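Journal club prep — side note

Before the paper discussion, L.F. wants everyone to see what a predicted structure for a comparable chain looks like in token form. Sequence:
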Amino acid sequence: MPGLTILVTGGSSASGIATARALGAAGHKVFTVGSDDARIKAAADDAGSGVTPMVCDLASYDAVRELARALTGRGVDRVDGVIHLVGGWRGAKGIEDQSDEDWDAMERGAITTLRNVSRVFYSQLEASPQGRLAMISSTAVSSPTAAAASYAASKAAAEAWTLAVADGFRRAQADGRAETQHQPQDLHSAAVVFVVKALVDPAMRAAHPERRFPGYTDVEDLAAAVVGLFEEPAANLNGQRILLAK
């Protein structure tokens, strides 16, 4: 369904640029969000026409509420999709040197930002005939290492939150019928988790021509998968962990 309004958070990253570009090319109205004005404007220019930059501290609930008001002021009646690409990685040698600073950074980036955007835009996504919430997670959740404990734990928490949103959609759209473990056929909103080992982009390949990046997911492949979310029935997507790692 072309013409949807989609928010891409973490929009100044390579994955954000590729995703915004692909969604715009598919005919959607895209707002790409970052914390730095100059970077997000440059990212929107790189993504192409039809992509509008917005500045917001997604770790602040009040700032995300202001973002929603700003979109309304731009004539946006409803956000149909939130593609949450806010990332970050922190590692250490093992369990004992997992620092509070690293945990705070991961909690803020991976969990708090997701909680904020999903709470603020939940009712709009639930009301949309094709509402979609998607986040990027890691294969580290299924096989965490001691060195990446904070990273894996924060991603696991973010996954749990996203799957809870999926349950919210299912319950809200069950149309008063008895709860079952099956998705209702008329489900129109979905929350999903994309799982990658890591992402790779052309700049990374150019900087390290000797590397093959085994198992990495190209940002263009991620972007194509995001576009596909709006072409697939919600009943096939809601609550799914979609593995993009190769």
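L.F.'s comment for the group: The beta strands are 5-9, 29-34, 51-55, 81-84, 131-138, 189-196, 199-200, 217-218, 241-243. Keep this in mind when we get to the figures.
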